[in-house]
Amino acid sequence: MIRNNQTVISQFLLLGLPTSPEQQHLFYALFLAMYLTTIMGNFIIIIFILLDSHLHTPMYMFLGNLSFSDLCFSSVTIPMMLQNMKSQDTSISYPGCLTQMYFYMVFANLENFLLMVMAYDRYVAICFPLRYTSIMSPILCVSLVFMSWVICMLSSLLHTLLVVKLSFCEDNIIPHFFCDISALLMLACSDIHINELLIFYLGGTSIVIPFFLIVVSYTQIVWSILSVSSTRAIHKVFSTCGSHLSVVSLFYGTIIGLYLSPSANSSTVKKTAMTMMYTLVTSMLNPFIYSLRNRDMKEALIRILYKKKISL
Ligand SMILES: *[C@@H]1O[C@H](CO)[C@@H](O)[C@H](O)[C@H]1NC(C)=O
To answer: Do residues 44 and 286 touch, judged by C-beta distance below 8 A?
Structure first.
């Protein structure tokens, strides 16, 4: 290994959100409220799914996992960002920065894979309703969730290990509210060619493949509805898939907005705002989209409250 006379960076400074000091309090209150809503909403969903045996179906197991992933995804960045908004010291240690980067990638990716698994589940439920329980066996469900976790952890580990190999020079200011991999790469003073290639190909495929499979699943679903062509069937399909479809559009809408917006006019401010949207807003809205539009969830609430009453 070549050692040159670079200063070894032991910490980074996070610049945080590009807000003016007067706006700081407003944004602090807004993001705190959004974060607390995210935690509460997703926590309630997980509790419902664990407590109510009627919700022990593959679809709700996957939803529980999505909520768990949402909880973790927002908790990786938002609490630290809120703390940094209040304090003068916004430094983060080198290991802390890499850890945050790793978990951010794990949960961002996991969200992708879980949405794909959920689309497959809906596809089987609608296109093969009679064989649904035999196809979506407990073993298959557990393996799908397990595989998603393993793939996300391994690919994020690979990205992180390649960042560990980089050397950083004088500049340690990250113009972002968390340790984002692309922001870190810009600070590196060694060759980042391999890292960029890996992000492009591995990161690209882990977004494009799930997205593609989701589109395929929904195309199949739409085909099967059109072949039945009874208004009642169509209504039934939209009531089961509508909420899933809204989550998918929200999630990929923000990703596509983030990465496909023309880079010439996408300022740091705009990028940060979009990332914020992607980390906080989607995680916050997921539980509402599922529970407000969903009769099973409302019935579960009634059953849980009713049980409480009886036991009291
Ligand atoms: C996640 O999915 C697995 C496998 O389907 C399931 O056993 C587990 O209960 C789920 N977790 C939550 C929090 O719903």
So the answer is: no
The reply to whether ligand 1 has any atom less than 6 angstroms from the CB of 147 is no
Which ligand 1 atom minimizes the distance to the CA of 141?
5
Cβ neighbours for 93, distance < 8 A, ≥ 6 positions apart? 10, 11
Distance 62 CA to ligand 1 centre (A): 6
Asked if 124 contacts 132 with a C-beta cutoff of 8 angstroms, the reply is yes
* 44-84 pLDDT, tens digit each: 989 988 988 888 889 899 999 999 999 999 999 999 999 98
Question: What are the extents of the domains in the chain?
Answer: 7-311
Q: Is 65 in the pocket of ligand 1 (CB under 6 A)?
A: yes
Query: Would the CB of 103 count as within 6 Å of ligand 1?
Result: no
Check pLDDT > 60 for residue 227.
yes
The arrangement of secondary structure in 7-311, i.e. its CATH architecture, is: Up-down Bundle (1.20)
